[in-house]
Amino acid sequence: MPVGRPTKYSDEVIEKAEGYLKNYRELGDMIPSVVGLADELCVTQKTLYNWSEKHPRFLHMLERINARQHRTLLSGGLSGEMNSNITKLVLAKHDYSDKQAVDATSSDGSMTPQVIERVIIKPDHGS
Question: pLDDT tens for residues 37-59?
């Protein structure tokens, strides 16, 4: 006998997920997301991930949502349609990072840090 509540997973869930992927903007989302799908299906994100472990077809759906999110972010970020800071933040989930390396030296040595010698002179207290 199964433990817990019966699953809501069905072919209808896949159809609704397809509908979400096609119409996420009309549903109020700028980018498709697992959070948006969970809300549209009236389930938790954890439920979606549980379904993806048991149902390869649903795993494929989540992968498609993440791929569309990635593509939408890249296009929106490059075109300037989306806020660059938010785009950068969400793209970090897709293994993008913003790194800068600063090398404060130059090949000719002109930018080599200079050593400054300091001499502290104390007043003569004996006079």
Answer: 999 999 999 999 999 999 999 99
Contact (CB, 8 A) for 90 and 66 = no
User: What is the four-CA torsion angle of 21, 74, 33, 84, rounded to 10 degrees?
Assistant: -140
Read off the DSSP letter of residue 100. Answer: -
Q: How many residues does the chain have?
A: 127
CB–CB of 105/112 below 8 Å? yes
Residue 46, helix vs strand vs coil: helix
Instruction: For residue 68, give the nearest of 96, 30, 98 by alpha carbon.
Output: 30
Helix/strand/coil for 122: coil
Residue type, 66: N
Dihedral pair phi/psi, residue 8, rounded to 5°: -90, -5
User: Could you tell me the CA-to-CA distances from 11 to 37, 39, 67 in Å, in that order?
Assistant: 15, 18, 22
Structure tokens at 30: 């700028």
- Residue identified by tokens 């296009």 is 75
